[in-house]
Amino acid sequence: MAEVRSSVQHHCVNADEEGQRIDNYLMRLLKGVPRSRIYRLLRKGEVRVNGSRARPTRRLQAGEVVRLPPITRPESTGSPDAPSERLAKRLAEGILYEDDQLLILDKPSGLAVHGGSSVRLGLIEALRCLRPDAPYLELVHRLDRETSGCIMVAKQAATLRELHAQLRAGRVEKRYRTLLAGCLANDSVTVEAPLERLQVSFRDRQVRVSGGGRSAKTAFTALQRYDGYTLAEARIETGRMHQIRVHAAHIDHPVAGDDRYGDRRRNAALRSAGLTRLFLHAHSLELLHPQTGKRLTVTAPMSADLQQVLEHLPVGGCRHRSEVSDGE
Fold this sequence. Notes:
Shape: globular
Distance between the termini: 61 Å
């Protein structure tokens, strides 16, 4: 495919774009440019906002000027692949709440929230294909590709700005369901440990607990104890990449089915119980409706495959660490 190289460009942020993160803004502006390339431009300081370097998480203000360097991209990227009938049906059935401001749906595990260099079709691209007449559809937040459950999509720019403000102020409560390896030492365990991103390879990023990282807080509450496992609720007060997974591994209770930070031996054992994915589900969201200001609670039940895994595990038999002798 032929490629073209642009000249230096300057874009003025308008009122409808205010509040967007610079990385999301660039992905919308630079259609066809891989995500990895966009993040590399940001890391190297080649993208400037009002003459200054910008972190990927920087939120834009109306009137600011974004400078883009010359960029090579395909001459014609075409439109994303249309979602399959199966995916279209799954997304339609997964709608948990919708009005003219907001869409909340149950994202399937295995579906990335947006496309990139290695993912042609993500959730947001699928929604735009399925709703070609929708004037505005933007992700409010993200979920890992392997994580299922509640995710918000704004249908108006003002909605996006308001929900971003709620997220920054901690007024959106996110609750997850997760199966942890081992038995939590107490019924409630709060982890406060800063997290740092690592660029392992060109496309692979990992996260670790590090004193030089960004603050992160996760509260785990035991819901049900099984033989060697704990079904827990996880509440996050910050939204860092891989936060629940890394914090769970940090306290030696990794998330079941986690191939990146988890326990390979336990994961292999759980496959016999039918676990073929990460056992992490965004169970519920509580927020203030961006238009009415009323409290809105939306819940996504755990999928049948996760329920079946729990049904295969013996209940009980999981003891607190204080009850286990040093010899065990």
